Amino acid sequence: MEISASPLFRGIPARDLPALLDRTAAHRVPFQKGELLLRRGETTRRLGLVLSGTVHVIREDFWGRRSIVGLAGEGEIFAESYALAGEPLEVSVLAASDGEALFLEAEHLSERLSANLMTLLAEKNLMLTEKMRHMSRRTTREKLLSYLSAQALRAGKAEFRIPLDRQQLADFLAVDRRAMSAALGKLRDEGVLEFRKNHFRLLRRGEEID
Questions:
Q1: C-alpha–C-alpha distance, residues 107 and 207, integer Å
Q2: Phi, psi (degrees; rounded to nearest 5) at 79
Q3: What would the pLDDT profile of 62-100 be if each residue is shown by its tens digit?
Q4: pTM of the predicted model as reported, rounded to 2 decimal places
Q5: How far apart are CA 24 and CA 185, in angstroms?
Q6: DSSP secondary structure letters along 55-104
Q7: Could you give the C-alpha distances from 162 to 45, 165, 199, in angstroms and in order?
Q8: What's the DSSP call for residue 196?
Q9: For residues 202 and 110, what is the distance between their CA atoms, to the nearest angstrom?
Q10: What is the C-alpha separation between 172 and 137, in angstroms, rounded?
Q11: Integer CA distances (angstroms), 14 to 4, 8, 10, 95, 126, in order
C-alpha cells in the first residue's frame, strides 16, 4: 500500500509527507512469516505501521502458552502504546505472513499525526472491548459463535473469511485447539454453519441468514 493511504496519515498533504517521514526517522523493514519484529522485554520508541502482510501481537505465559491479543493488517499500527510510554514490552510482535512495516519515532510525531494516532487508539480500544466480549462467554462454542457473528456483521453478509487459521483462532479466543475443532464440527453437523479453512458461512436452522 501507499504510505499516504494509511489512516495514520489522514489529512496530511502529499507534499508534506517526505519531511514528516524524515523528521520521524521513518524506515521500512521487510519481514518474513514467523519472524519476531519486537520482543517481549525490550523497550521501543518506534511505533509500527503495516504496509503489507499481517502481524500478530502475542502474549506468552511462563509455560510458553501463547495467546493473540491483537492483530494488525495493511494500513494498521502496532506497538504504539509502548512507543509512547517508553515502557518495556509485555508482548511480542510476530509476523503472521511475509510483508513490510514502516517504523516511526513516536516522540517526533507532528500534531496532526498525534491526532490521527489518538483516533486509531480509540478504535483499537473498541476492538479490544469486542475481543473481551467474545472471551467472556463461558464455553468454547459460545466464544466461537460470538466471534463469528461479529465477523458476519462486519462483512455485512453470512459468508465471509476470517484473518486467522485454526491455531491462530484458538490463540485469539484463548481456547484449546482440539476443543475448538470439535465445537466447530458439532456446529456444522447441527446446521448452524459451514466452513472450509478460514471461509465461513453462517446458517439459521439449515438456511442461510439474510
A1: 54
A2: 65, 15
A3: 778 888 999 999 999 999 999 999 899 999 999 999 999
A4: 0.78
A5: 49
A6: EEEEEE-TT--EEEEEEE-TT-EESHHHHHHTPPPSSEEEESSSEEEEEE
A7: 31, 8, 7
A8: E
A9: 44
A10: 14
A11: 7, 13, 10, 29, 30
Give every CB contact of residue 40 below 8 A, 6+ residues apart in sequence: 59, 60, 89, 90, 91, 92
Cell match 487459521: residue? Answer: 165
pLDDT digits (tens, 9 = 90+) for 167-196: 999 999 989 999 999 999 999 999 999 999
Q: Which residue has the cell 513516536?
A: 106
Q: For residues 144 and 164, give the distance between their C-alpha atoms in angstroms, rounded to a whole number.
A: 13
Half-sphere exposure in the Cβ direction for 32 (13 Å, CA): 0
Strand order across the beta sheet in which 36-38 lies? 36-38, 92-95, 55-60, 66-72
* 209 Cβ neighbours under 8 A, 6+ residues apart: 152, 158, 202, 203
Which three three-digit cell numbers place residue 144? 466461537
State the cell numbers at 195.
466452513
Please tell me which residue, 63 or 104, carries the higher pLDDT value.
104
Distance, in Å, from the CA atom of 159 to the CA atom of 206, rounded to the nearest integer, reads: 14
What is the predicted pLDDT for the residue at 209?
Answer: 46
